[in-house]
Amino acid sequence: MNLVLNKVKKSFGNMKAVDNVSIEMEEGLYGLLGSNGAGKTTLMRMLCTVLKPTEGSICYDGMDIFKMDAQYRDIIGYLPQEFGFYPNLSVKKYLAYIASLKGLKNKVADRRIDILLETTGMKEHSLKKMKELSGGMKRRVGIAQALLNDPKILILDEPTAGLDPIERIRCRNLLGELAKGKIVLLSTHIVSDIEAIAKKVFVMKEGKIIKEGTVEELCSNIPCKVWLYCLKTDEAEGFISRFKSSVSAINNNGKYTELRILSENKPDDNARLVDATLEDLFFYYFGIEGGDKYD
Ligand SMILES: Nc1ncnc2c1ncn2[C@@H]1O[C@H](COP(=O)(O)OP(=O)(O)OP(=O)(O)O)[C@@H](O)[C@H]1O
């Protein structure tokens, strides 16, 4: 099973939202990492046949997905950033409604819904109305609706957006489990969403995939050095303002402050060289404005 994108482009007028993307995915979970406006949603919408590429092809097991048409849509599950939301339906009724839209027979739908309520930890909330759910619960229902047809390909656009840290961990664990036997592509601008679970990460910037590889490969090939430097907190401010655009993390423990600095040169005699993390890589390519760890 594979999904192959060959020189895929999508333009809106003169704007190249996706620019010459060629990637290949097999079974497993893939992360699509990029800042706001990088082109992630546009790419995902093409993978779901919601949008047609301006140029290039997307093939599933060698077949053009746009020619496969309904046959392809039967094997795909999609969680858009904003999914259709019926506030007065209970979770169970909402899932039954989406199942009927997807053409599932009642008996099959009932069985799938029971399994998915269990898998997503929503069983005890199944009679709650959609409007009564927390952000995390809504995302879990969103994942459940994408899984109703037991898809071979699962496309999730920022599934953890707006979740608190506990819900985010829960969501991450669930997705790690779900990836068995499927191609899962998850977009995010939050490194920790994919760091531990992605088989491979695609880094997207200005419509292009600028890097791809396992987390280890990406981190070991970051084109600069990463330094850890611990200094007294009252001395840190001046140092930070001097190295501002190179400081990827600040950890203040009261009396002392620890800085991660991306620099070719040793920033201070007492700084020590450390291994890069995916967070450092994101900072290297997108800078301070690129992500929002607390989103
Ligand atoms: N229908 C459209 N018409 C015109 N421009 C569009 C359209 N859809 C997307 N764009 C533009 O294409 C670029 C990529 O947008 P896209 O939504 O794919 O990025 P993204 O990486 O998903 O960002 P975010 O994380 O903010 O959702 C942006 O500059 C956006 O304004």
UniProtKB/TrEMBL annotation:
InterPro entries the UniProt entry points to: AAA+_ATPase (IPR003593), ABC_transporter-like_ATP-bd (IPR003439), ABC_transporter-like_CS (IPR017871), P-loop_NTPase (IPR027417)
Parts forming coiled coils: none
GO function term, MF aspect, one: ATP hydrolysis activity
Superkingdom as given in the UniProt entry: Bacteria
Pfam families: ABC_tran
Keywords associated with the record: ATP-binding, Nucleotide-binding, Transport
UniProt keyword ATP-binding present: yes
Domain ABC transporter: 3-231
Transport as UniProt keyword: yes
Family stated for the protein in its record: Belongs to the ABC transporter superfamily.
Protein name (database record): Uncharacterized ABC transporter ATP-binding protein YbhF
Protein source organism: Urinicoccus massiliensis
Lineage: Bacteria, Bacillati, Bacillota, Tissierellia, Tissierellales
